[in-house]
Amino acid sequence: MDLQLSGKTALVTGGSMGIGKAVARALADEGVDVAILARTKATLQAAADELERATGRRILAVPADTSRDDSVREAAQQVVEAFGHIDILVNCAAQPAGQGPAPTLAEVTDEAFFGDVNTKVMGYLRCIQAVAPHMKSQGWGRIINISGMAARTPASIIGSIRNVSVVAMTKNVAEQLGPFGINVTVVHPGMTRTEKTAALARAAAEQSGSSVEEAEKRRFGGNLLGRAIDASDIAAVVTFLASPRAVAINGDVIAAAGGTRGAIHY
Questions:
Q1: Are 238 and 204 in a shared domain?
Q2: Is 120 exposed, middle or buried (0-12, 13-18, 19+ CB in 10 A)?
């Protein structure tokens, strides 16, 4: 299937590693010029250089902090000046879940809560506010917000609150932007294999006295497939949603976790 993405442009936040980097690679493979945004300049530029060599597309490194209004506005303007337009926004800049024990009720602090929500919820909203006028003027756009299965699983108080908030924000924004030809959706990854997985599996194996393979199976074996979902698998879903082919999906949530056990979601 031709996803009709050739010649489009995209801004991917959190694009220097993990799911964000995989999304940037998948979009570029479909003929998209991609700006990747993250806070650490050296890591970001290295990722941009790697992606550009691998895909042959233009990959622009844009250092920025999505927790700050001014930084987001400046980043969006830089992308528009470089590419001429922004067709796709993928919001992926957030502290990844599942990297350590979630804070208990007594351990949740104002600083931890508002810091996380400012980055993942307000940060996503800031980026949408910055690109929406450009998408509205051209009468087309795709916005995909990466949230997570903590929206449906009570494993982390802060994680669940922030992820549910992303869903509510997405639906509200889709209501307002839909008439302008802009689709806004959410993707819920579950436990996903990224560059950090090997180190986390080794640490878990040492702590439990098991093999790395056993530790990884415990970490990823909870889905219906019984195996790990890779960042590239999530990127494939996002790339379809970013395309004109996904016009029928708007304001909705796509779970991309390999199938969860138990509850029926409808």
A1: no
A2: buried
